[in-house]
Specification:
Layout lengths: L1 H8 L3 E5 H12 L11 E5 L4 H12 L5
Parallel strand pairs: 1-2
Helix pairs in contact: 2-3
């Protein structure tokens, strides 16, 4: 995992699944370290699932859910 993350940090293009990307957003918003690096281009595997998964992350991180 550490080796893969180190390689991703140097990449211009990063391919991630939607769960990892959204989890990274939540971690960054919480003020913690990033899971994946910033990239010029982000390619999503299974991108058609992003709206449903994003709404789940949004609901679980809203103040009413906590």
């Amino acid at each position: 995992m550490v080796k893969a993350r180190r390689r991703a940090m140097d990449a211009d293009v990063v391919v991630v699944n939607h769960h990892l990307f959204l989890a990274d957003m939540v971690v960054k918003e919480g003020g913690f370290a990033e899971l994946i690096p910033e990239a010029d281009v982000m390619i999503f595997d299974e991108a058609h699932q992003i709206p449903d998964i994003a709404s789940q992350y949004s609901a679980s991180s809203s103040p009413a859910a906590n």
